[in-house]
Design brief:
Layout lengths: L14 H14 L5 E2 L11 H10 L15 H15 L9 E4 L2 H12 L5 E6 L3 H9 L3 E6 L10 H5 L6 E6 L12 H14 L2 E5 L23 E6 L12 E4 L2 H11 L8 H11 L3 H24 L3 E2 L7 E5 L7 H12 L1 E2 L1 E2 L10 E5 L4 H10 L3
Parallel strand pairs: 1-11, 3-4, 3-5, 5-6, 6-7
Antiparallel strand pairs: 2-8, 7-8, 9-10, 10-13, 12-13
Amino acid sequence: MIKTAKRLDTVEEYYFSTKLREVRQLLSEGKPIINMGIGSPDLEPDVSVIEAIQSAVAEEHAHQYQSYQGLPELRSGMVDFYKKYYQVDLDLNTEVLPLMGSKEGIMHIALAFLNEGDQLLIPNPGYPTYSSVAQLVGAEPVLYDLIADNHWEPDFEALEQLDLSRVKLMWVSYPHMPTGAAGSLNLFERLVAFARKHQILLVNDNPYSFVLNDHPISILEVAGAKEVALELNSLSKTYNMAGWRVGMVCGNATFIDAILKVKSNMDSGMFYGIQKGAIAALKLDVSWFERLNNVYAKRRELIFELAEKLGCTFDINAVGLFVWAKLPQGVVSSEQFIDEILYNKHIFITPGTIFGSQGEGYIRFSLCVKATKIKEAIERFES
């Protein structure tokens, strides 16, 4: 009998992969499911982006292998994006690397920097992929708790009390997913100082900068950050291009070169047409974000109304693509809570527990749902 690799014993199938099968089954049975669980933008990219990929596919050499580092124009667009919105200077030849989505970058960074037995710091709650990728490469996740009373930011005193001798890498994500905590330059300064003190590679996962957030920031704005920090960014939520799989990792040349060594052995370059579409997206001005956020702001107000119907509380100042809501007092299981709503009201909401133990007692609503559907969900609790 052929056995799978032992590394698969350390991870489970991604929650949404399994749960959405259940949701699809309910749909096939004729249940009118409203999916508020997934952060997959339902709005379209700008028309200029669509036109760019359409015209690109007819160009000579469009269907050949592409550079592992992406088109120079794409890297230039990413550099300009960081300069315009974050005031960060990057070298387009050595300090930015296009990725097939930032999720790819999580694995590449792990493969480039983590040895078996190394430890890494992972936020709790946080993106589940940080832990699963660590386990797949044989590293040991060390969770650090984030709590509402501390604005979902790390407790530096608690971090200093840990044995950090084997810690090689630290994941942070601000604006934070799933809580919507915005973070701040002061927080980034403290994180960079902590990483420098303990010689830890600090990685900020930053795909939600521009969603309902008036003050986008990058960890690379901090003086000296490039010595210890990398940043992942993405066009998925920023430009409604989730299915296109376009992201980037930025940092100093030595770090980027290490990641490129992994990446160049994992793929054969990003499709030319997608790169041309991404170049067009990166040229859009601030009015694009204003139009997008106008839609999300209206949806968020409706989600707030729905959350109140469920007896939940939430932070109206949170940013990003989700509403993180605290369950009513006395509710002990977020998974049981959302399942009752799924089966009785046919609405799928994400339980906070999939993001870690500190997510118990919370649920997460996505804003990637049309206003008409959110209103319909509200009406289901009025009948």
